[in-house]
Write a structure and sequence with these properties.
By secondary structure, the protein is mainly alpha-helical. The protein has four helices and no strands.
Length: 229
């Protein structure tokens, strides 16, 4: 099993690219050719795959935080490129959603006009409501796009915060290692001082014994010389 620091990222990236390929195929092929409920079902599957791709991007960004600094910038660029492509596909899907809704509204209007059961005043009112509904959909799409832009900006801020936290963690780990090394040095110095103190006491005892022996010898010599023969 590959245990390199980029192995899991590469696996996520492969899944991400497969999902993008699937979404791109649906948007450029099936969703444009289909009509009605078939198109809606395809667009729902596209929405689910886009959400899944979003989650994978988040996992990829988490994996980048644990990579060595020498390769981190390269992989961050790959994530940014993937996010740009995902945003493009999401916008394309929204356009197709809007197109499908407009087609459904226009189809309903055409059916009402061909039935002949509505008078001219009601038909004019119906067209007005349809136009208002279309404008409401356009406004909703714009709000969704603005919300998506804000979400991306928030995501970038979150990624920056994660990077800063990772850098701070590395600093704390280095400080901890330095403290451990200092503690080890203090322990070694303490052991050396204890040995020196023991040797000093031993030297004092030896010196005291020598002095006592010398005094005893001096006393014995003096006693021998001064004592009557």
């Amino acid at each position: 099993m590959d245990t390199s620091p980029t192995a899991l990222f590469d696996s996520y990236e492969q899944d991400f690219n497969q999902i993008l390929s699937s979404v791109r195929s649906k948007l450029d092929g099936e969703a444009k050719e289909q009509k009605g409920e078939q198109r809606k079902a395809t667009l729902r599957r596209v929405d689910m795959e886009v959400e899944e791709a979003d989650e994978i991007v988040s996992q990829m960004e988490v994996e980048i935080q644990g990579m060595p600094q020498s390769v981190k910038a390269q992989y961050q660029g790959r994530v940014r490129t993937g996010k740009v492509e995902l945003s493009r596909l999401r916008a394309q899907a929204k356009e197709l959603h809007l197109s499908a809704s407009r087609a459904e509204l226009l189809g309903s209007a055409s059916f009402a006009a061909s039935s002949g059961s509505l008078d001219d005043d009601f038909g004019s009112s119906q067209r007005t409501r349809l136009l208002q509904g279309t404008q409401t959909l356009a406004d909703s799409t714009k709000r969704l796009q603005d919300s998506h832009r804000i979400a991306l900006e928030t995501e970038d801020v979150g990624a920056d915060i994660l990077r800063n936290l990772h850098i701070q963690r590395e600093g704390i780990v280095r400080t901890r290692d330095t403290l451990q090394e200092a503690d080890s040095s203090i322990n070694r110095a303490s052991g050396t001082l204890k040995k020196m103190i023991r040797r000093m006491y031993q030297q004092r005892v030896v010196t005291g014994v020598i002095i006592i022996i010398l005094l005893f010898l001096i006393g014995f010599i003096l006693w021998h010389k001064l004592s009557p023969q």
